[in-house]
Specification:
This protein is mainly alpha-helical. Helix content is 63%, strand content 6%. The chain has helices spanning 11-26, 33-40, 44-47, 54-80, 84-101, 103-110, 120-141, 152-171, and strands at 181-186, 189-194. Helix 1 crosses helix 2 (33-40) and helix 4 (54-80) packs antiparallel against helix 5. The longest helix has 27 residues, at 54-80.
Length: 196
Amino acid sequence: MPKRGYHHGNLRQALVDAALELITIKGPTGFTLSEAAKQAGVTPAAVYRHFEGREDLIAEAALQGYAIFGDLMQYAFDKGQPSALAAFEATGRAYLAFARKYPGHYIAMFESGISVNRTPELAAASQRARGVQEKAAADLSEHIPRDKRPPASMFSAHIWALSHGVVELFARNPKARFLPRICWKAELVSTCADWG
């Protein structure tokens, strides 16, 4: 691969972009900083001007992913308003769409082993995205009597886990034979989203 250089002026972002490509192809532990540097067209020493090591680079990719993810989730939630059901369904679709469109970010966020508590910025970005899903779950649960209503955080966590499972089974599995229609059921409310 010919060296591209970083005359574009943003070596830090070039390294993140290179890491995202490598993460998508090789996984979060399948590449070295030297490979990321080569992909960005710089020497391995240049990486250390911006990142302490591979985990630091992956954490930055995760941080950027959570920022995009949070924006997508908020947009989906807002677009579904004023219907709590439409907003809830839209956030579920946004989760799946994010995983399809941003696989490197998704892997950095959820499969790299990088803790969301690694930095305050990463924790805040993660909480923002989770908060949108939690708000959608809370709004959808309003019709359930208070004494029978599950905590919004628990309801949201179940949906988050379901969505994550769908991604792992179908998006990350190139041998999947069919694309499912995913349905969530919450007490008296059921909603579906097409994966494909």
